[in-house]
Amino acid sequence: MGAMSIARLERAEAEQVEKAPLDMRKNIGHSIKLVAFMVPIVLLSKYLAIIIDYGVATTGAPIALGGLLIAIIVFT
């Protein structure tokens, strides 16, 4: 049983891959772009919700359907 644990350690040491250093400037830039692209979608979804809620109320569908449709639009 001890031989198996030594083999595992040797295998784990052999499989270690050197990781690239983090570039904080790149990460911050990508984070800012992500938020900048999300803001218009969220703001427009509020106006779209009014139209969808009207359609849901007119058809007599469950109210939760409006929220589901907005969630699908925002997440895709």
User: What ranges have pLDDT less than 50 throughout 5 or more consecutive residues?
Assistant: none
Helix tally equals 3
Describe the main β-sheet briefly: none
- Number of distinct beta strands: 0
Shape: elongated
Strand content: under 5%
Helix and strand content put the structural class at mainly alpha
The whole-angstrom Rg is: 25 Å
Order of helices and strands: HHH
Report mean pLDDT, rounded to a whole number. Answer: 81
First-to-last CA distance: 51 Å
Proportion of helical residues: over 70%
Give a topology summary.
Blueprint: H1 2-15, H2 24-59, H3 64-75
Kindly list the characteristics that best describe this protein.
single chain; about 80 residues; mainly alpha; about 80% helix
Could you characterize the architecture of this molecule?
The chain has 76 residues and is mainly alpha-helical. The protein has three helices and no strands. The chain is elongated. The termini are far apart. The model has no long low-confidence stretch (mean pLDDT 81).
Give me a quick take on this structure.
With 76 residues, the chain is mainly alpha-helical. It has three helices and no strands. Helix 2 runs antiparallel to helix 3.
